[in-house]
Write a structure and sequence with these properties.
- The protein is α+β, with helices and mostly antiparallel strands.
- The chain has two domains: about 260 residues, FAD/NAD(P)-binding domain; about 150 residues, Flavocytochrome C3, Chain A, domain 1.
- Helices cover about 35% and strands about 15% of the residues.
- The chain has 16 helices and 18 strands.
- A five-stranded parallel beta sheet has the order 6-2-1-10-18, covered by helices on one side. Strands 12, 13, 14, 15 and 16 form a five-stranded antiparallel beta sheet that branches. Strands 3-5-4 form a three-stranded antiparallel beta sheet.
- A hairpin with a 4-residue loop joins strand 8 and strand 9.
- Helix 1 runs parallel beside helix 6 and helix 7 packs antiparallel against helix 8.
- The longest helix has 22 residues.
- It is globular.
- Bound molecules: flavin-adenine dinucleotide.
- Flavin-adenine dinucleotide binds next to helix 1, helix 6, strand 7 and helix 16.
- Flavin-adenine dinucleotide (FAD) binds next to helix 1, helix 6, strand 7 and helix 16.
Length: about 500
Amino acid sequence: MQISNDIVPAIIIGSGLTGLTISDILINQYKLKNITIIDKNPRVGGNSIKASSGISAAGTQQQLNLQIENDSNDIFFEDIMKSSGKSKNINQVLIEKLSSDSKSAVDYLHKRHGLKLDKISKLGGHSVRRTHKSSNGIPPGFEMVSTIEKNILNQLDDDSTEVSFKMNTKLINFFINKKTFLKEVTLMDIPTGKTFKLKTPNLVLATGGFSANKNLIGKILDSEVSKKQTEDNNIIPKKLILAKLETLPTSNGDFATGDLIELLLGKPELSCQFKDLSEVQIHPTGFIDPTEPNALNKILAGEQLRGNGGILINPSTGGRFVNELDTRDRVTKGIFDQNLENDTVYLVLSEESGLYNMDTLGFYMKKGLVNKTTAEDLFANDEHKIAKFVSEIKSYSILKDDRFGRDFKINNFKDTFNEKSCIYIGKVTPILHYTMGGLAINEHGLVLNDKNKVIDSGLYAAGEQTGGIHGKNRLGGCSLLESVVFGLEVGKNIGESFAK
Ligand SMILES: Cc1cc2nc3c(=O)[nH]c(=O)nc-3n(C[C@H](O)[C@H](O)[C@H](O)COP(=O)(O)OP(=O)(O)OC[C@H]3O[C@@H](n4cnc5c(N)ncnc54)[C@H](O)[C@@H]3O)c2cc1C
């Protein structure tokens, strides 16, 4: 395709892992010039940069290196299907692509960007250990974002016109010119408030989710709950989320407001199809900072802490109450069912698990979110609770058949565990974390209308912005995966359109 000087070949809205992956492919593989990446945030990376547990994938070389040989695309596909509940909106073609392209996604990060991804955890709802991060202690989201950004910027050294990051710049509107098929995009430079326009044949919406926009979540849930529907077969009823919404904290950055969802809901002429907008993930474990217990923004206690040995304890009984490696919706429901003040429970790690997780735990300890202590101190010499806790730990460690069905235990507590043994603990509570719903797309990342037809052959969406993959519950590590799998797909499609 021929492009004139005042039109850019692609505009990518959002500089999270999705937007960066697409940009990398276009710039470094297809050698396209003037790719424009827009983000309203001053900093590159969106929520992607915060990811702490890793990227899930099946059949990787990294798994084989650790003798994890019992995984396959089919098992991964089944795990995603099972976790997604009975959402009628899921698109099996997308799930098929997500699972079967997962190895290539990890290969892309490993071979092209040099990420090791050699530490593998088993997260809730996965039947196999398959969530990868690097063993160098660098948080996975930061490692992915900063490395890809660097590899894009390296290209800039050769020719500074090849790519443009426009930070502090917000997409406020766009329309599709039906004659030219160009997408005419209105952007605002946030510091000055000035607006300007750009045109492109390829507009990619990669603006993430909306877990920091309680107004939007409240409106969507309200309309869903008030609809005359008798069944809500969600593990956590939507009515319950709505009732707790005001006090629920979030793990997301302030930018996760779903501007594009609101914009497109107000554009009936495009007839965009939305899937599962009311499916909101409440992650079970956000750290409670003792200096700010009621803060509405919390640091996530990543699921890998449970995957690598952490258990959950009811502070008022000293006992466990749930399979910590069940899906997030079930674990969160387990916490809500304890009816504790502020839904606060303890995340407890053995000494061995603490050491194994020290790459992340060290940071949480510095922040005062996790302490090294003993049962005696934790329960302030309440003998009844101490005895319950110690016997709980012993039976958890010894019994083969876990009473809550947990089937994967590593870094266990020692046989000699007693009230004076070392433990690591943090106070945690459920937090708004991820929006499963969004724009309907096809397997090439093209946005679909309400008749399942592609709206425009150059209008793409990918990443958390989209719906149809995770249904009622997203599995851990599948969001970074979605960003890379569909980022690579969209990048390839746009790149190929210029190669023709
Ligand atoms: C604390 C935390 C930990 C997580 N851990 C994991 C994990 O271990 N594994 C995993 O798979 N997932 C994890 N997730 C989820 C995952 O990080 C995100 O869902 C995923 O990275 C989303 O990527 P994205 O590129 O779609 O969006 P994002 O990375 O959120 O990027 C979207 C960008 O779009 C920009 N934007 C939004 N609206 C506009 C607008 N109108 N104009 C211009 N720019 C706009 C935003 O500023 C943002 O920078 C975690 C999430 C959080 C919050």
